[in-house]
Amino acid sequence: MKFGFFDDNEKEYVITTPKTPLPWINYLGSNDFFSLYSNTSGGYSFYKDAKLLRLTRYRYNNIPTDNGGKYFYINENGTIWNPGWQPVKAELDSYECRHGLGYSKITSSKNQLEASVTAFVPLNDNCEINQLILTNHSNEKKTFSLFSYIEFCLWNAVDDMTNFQRNLSIGEVEVEDSVIYHKTEYRERRNHYAYFSANEKPDGFDTSRDAFLGSYRGIDHPQVVEQNTSSNSIASGWSPIASHYFNLTLEPGESKGIVFVLGYIENKEEEKWESPGIINKAPAKTVIERYFTDEKVTTALHELKEYWKHLLSNYSVESKEPKLNRMVNIWNQYQCMVTFNMSRSASYFESGTGRGMGFRDSCQDLLGFVHLIPDRARERILDIASTQFEDGSAYHQYQPLTKKGNLDIGSGFNDDPLWLIACVSAYIKETGDFSILAELVPFDNDKTNSATLFEHLKRSLNYTITHLGPHKLPLIGRADWNDCLNLNCFSKEPGESFQTTGPSEGPIAESVFIAGMFVKYGKEYASICHELGDYDEEKRALLAVDEMYDAVLQSGWDGDWFLRAYDAASEKVGSKECSEGQIFIEPQGFCVLAGIGVKEGLAQKALDSVKERLDTKYGIMLLQPAYTKYYLNLGEISSYPPGYKENAGIFCHNNPWVSIAETVIGRGDRAFEIYKKTCPAYLEDISEIHRTEPYVYSQMIAGADAAFHGEAKNSWLTGTAAWTFVNVSQFILGIKPDYKGLIVDPCVPSNFGNYTVKRVFRDAEYFITVKNLDSVQKGVKKIIVDGVEIEGNLIPFEEGKTTYQVTVFMG
């Protein structure tokens, strides 16, 4: 069942009913100011950090769901409704929500009065625009009232939800003309404030939530709206809001636009005012003036659309698969950019108050956006590396505003260091910029203790080499990529750290998955050393890789698939010997994509086991059989009900690893089959089952053991976006950046046909036509570049050359 449709020409998803299975959202913002915006106008806004600088409130456990956002109430002769349906939920005569790239537009009507709200964050200002256009489609004059509404958050979202004894005494606002200033805490900090403005003089206003709603009322039936007039309330101590009231008249066929601006101002140190509570309004007025007319808003929206059009033009495909085309050309890359901005910090499944930026997450996300914004990718790498410790380990998460590690989460996730090698390698291959390796980067953000980025990479590699267990496999520490696989649980005393300095100290649980990572990214590190001419270091790294490869074959193979791990008692995890959890997805995918077992004939056997034991019609499950009881030696993974999350759920993030692994052994039919099972555009027809947005990837889908098999959760902010784009762009379509140029190595279904790819690489445009005349799944017969056949499948990059015409013949 569908709840909308794709408009590929406009790069929009069009939702045709507000009653979607879950709120279907969009992200507004490209730099520092962001908003989450749902198809019923729900969501919230923040500046840089969703925890520390939250502008508007949102209650995640609210009933009804998605109840809180930026609302416009219309009262026409006692008939009250909202353009976005919520919160009043009056039946509408028409409704449409268009989620575009960085903007959303909701248009609805009731009694021949149409209301259209376009919401977006402009490129260069810290504000959100809401342009409301009202049109009278009747043959009679209409007189009605309009009320805007937002609820301010008192900045720190956690404190806002908990510290009521203080917060119910600090609300402070100021109203001047059509601007409502939220200056709570200004007398304390005197360095920032928020504002909500309209470009029309209102007939009234409200800034007190209690006055606007009335006693014991909700936002679904505010007292002020029912009474059809504002109370001109000034919040003092209690919960501050911002609401404008307009009494409007429209002639038949007449339209009227009103522009609302929600903004954030952070004063520079020298601009702070000495008098408590007196704010410098000039910066806000400057921004408001920039969007004071409908024409100015239209120009700003056009600039935003052009920005996204240019950004997404770096990689595009034309094939006979329209669903593939729209995901590659539009939605997958768009989602990769959102994960760049958010990591895992703020979604409808992450409150924005806890996780912040993930070390591993941000490194993986970079794989999906480095081709779009290489300069900002460079900055992100240096930010990530600066949270690393001297021994090569790292804070698992850090706050985006402070760049400081999250002490609640801590460190000890022993896969983290290797992901830094992964993202730096991807950046250098994309840009050719080896100079980043010479950048001085602090350890733990201590600028008095810095080393080159290359030294950081060396310590990442060394951390794994010096943390091996009794089987010569990497120690897992607190966990590896699967945060819930806590194999040292029963060996850890309360308060004991998971960090160890060698195999003889502390917990000895080992990870075959990290071993696969080490083989892959150890080779990447060695390649960097080779390009730098550091051949001794290259040799040292490759020797360690070979030893790890042998350790996996000797101690990590279970007969038909790779083991997952050894627990703290050196008992196997992910083995035929286990009663539950006999096979896991992660090592099958990552070991094979790293090349382990390919020449020995083990790779195909492992992937066949995945298909036989883990595959479902909705994707590949993380493990089987599911755990039916709690295992102390396994930890949180066995705490979930069977079929959910890490306990045999379909973790979409690691499905691409298996798809990539299939391309390694040349099975394009199977690789594409796996790709389609978790690709949202291919799931649109079952939205009533899938439930999350049909235009972006979700983190997980309920597995075969779950009550609601096929139901997705945790959409938008997931490594699925980056890894799926890497899979489809580099391994299925086969256009891979490398140090010396672009490698073309497709692995497609036998019936895929011909296709073309436009790829911008180091400021040059590559127009690549792939011809599959023999209907093969993998293999390149010859490549012609600008009319000349080349040797091999690497298209050498030539400095100064701006276009390449490439024809690839598979065979």
Automatic annotation (TrEMBL):
UniProt entry keywords in alphabetical sequence: Glycosyltransferase, Transferase
Tell me, what is one Gene Ontology molecular-function annotation carried by this entry? carbohydrate binding
Domain named Glycosyl hydrolase 94 catalytic: residues: 307-734
Top-level taxon of origin: Bacteria
CDD domains per record = GH94N_CBP_like
Report the residue ranges that make up the Glycosyl hydrolase 94 supersandwich domain in this protein: 11-270
Q: Name one Pfam family in it.
A: GH94_b-supersand
Please state what the protein is called. Glycosyl transferase
- UniProt record, GO biological process: carbohydrate metabolic process
- Asked whether the keyword Transferase is assigned, the reply is yes
Key word Glycosyltransferase present in the record? Answer: yes
